[in-house]
Design brief:
Tetracycline Repressor, domain 2, 2 domains, 73% helix, mainly alpha, homodimer, transcription regulation (chains A, B), elongated, DNA-binding, 188 residues, Arc Repressor Mutant, subunit A, 9 helices
Chain lengths: 188, 188
DNA sequence: TTATTTCCGCTACCGCAGTAGCGATAGAGG
DNA sequence: CCTCTATCGCTACTGCGGTAGCGGAAATAA
């Protein structure tokens, strides 16, 4: 019952994603045209839409492939782990064009399927960092008055806000200051 | 040297913004078509584009009219003022459709002119709240280890992040918890 | 009055995202 | 073997944002 009709050509996925990546790097999100991707991949446009129901989801698939290789290994030192967590997100945001981040956020807010995908991208890291915060609070290493999930909102939200709205740079100094502002000063 | 050629019809601005508002409420940002706005306003599409160079800027003009009537009067009590600041932004974000917020953020990141407009919308409040934080720190009412601008990033960024990415609700309880997390517990 | 300049409405056009429907094809089940 | 079904490439289409260029209208400057 599984493989009735003609099977899908397994090479098409990779060819399309490669072509999309090339177009993306050359022209950005807006400049990426599905027609051109199809032409470059040597594939019909309708074949692309059979796999990814919209341009946003096609690009989502690209990004997912890209960022799935970003590890996160908590060491147990919460201050260090949070710093690496924030720095890792900052690096990921820096690795792709700002306009793409913006369009992905917009697509996530507009289309539920994309939203689920974007959230799933970060779910693992968020859970790990929430746990690290809880542990640190239990150990008295940081103020206990705050909900860990809110702290995650503050950390990640500040990065997005700075990148997308204020447009100010996200450099290592900012990441340090942000973590310091959230955790409070060292209190051994 | 000022008014050479034929003067602009001053009624057109209001007619177009009204029509755009109606379409916006009925169909959202994506469903808003400049062709239909032109037809509803009884105006040529090119006349709209002569005033606003893109659909994003047309909608920006609408929003600017809407949110320009949101006051902010610091009382001097920093905890209360910050709470009202955050609640005011939350209310403004709640008053317009989420997808519109998302598209505006995307447009702000993509087109510099829109970015300037969005930032100008909030510049006054941001400055006021930064000042309130600085004053509160000087008075010893809240921890002095953080840069006020970073605190603003954390507060506003958390709201945007929750609204656009995680999709969780922004209710008064969340606003309270967010302010508490940022300021720390009461220390009179 | 006449020349100049800008606006307005209009038609036509471009490239784009996304859809419908067509023959042809490649496999699975009978 | 033949039938059934899903895929592929293709053409054609819709609605959209945005642009170019036209004739005509409304103002100012000479």
């Amino acid at each position: 019952m599984v493989g009735r009709g003609r099977p899908r050509d397994t090479e098409i996925e990779a060819k399309v994603l490669d072509a999309a990546m090339t177009e993306m790097r050359a022209r950005g999100y807006d400049g990426l045209s599905v027609d051109r991707v199809a032409e470059r991949a040597g594939v019909a446009k309708t074949t692309i839409y059979r796999r990814w129901p919209s341009k946003a989801e096609l690009v989502m698939a690209m990004i997912t492939e890209l960022t799935s290789a970003v590890p996160f290994d908590p060491t147990g030192d919460p201050r260090r782990d949070l710093g690496e967590f924030v720095a890792g997100i900052a690096a990921a945001l820096d690795a792709i064009p700002t306009t793409l981040v913006a369009d992905l956020v917009a697509a996530a807010a507009r289309e539920p399927r994309v939203g689920v995908g974007v959230r799933a991208l970060w779910a693992h890291r968020h859970a790990a960092v929430s746990e690290a915060i809880t542990q640190a609070q239990a150990d008295g290493l940081m103020p206990a008055h705050a909900d860990p999930r809110i702290i995650v909102d503050q950390l990640v939200g500040a990065l997005y806000y700075r990148l997308l709205v204020t447009g100010d740079p996200i450099d290592p100094a900012y990441v340090r200051a942000l973590v310091l502002s959230t955790l409070g000063p060292e209190q051994s």
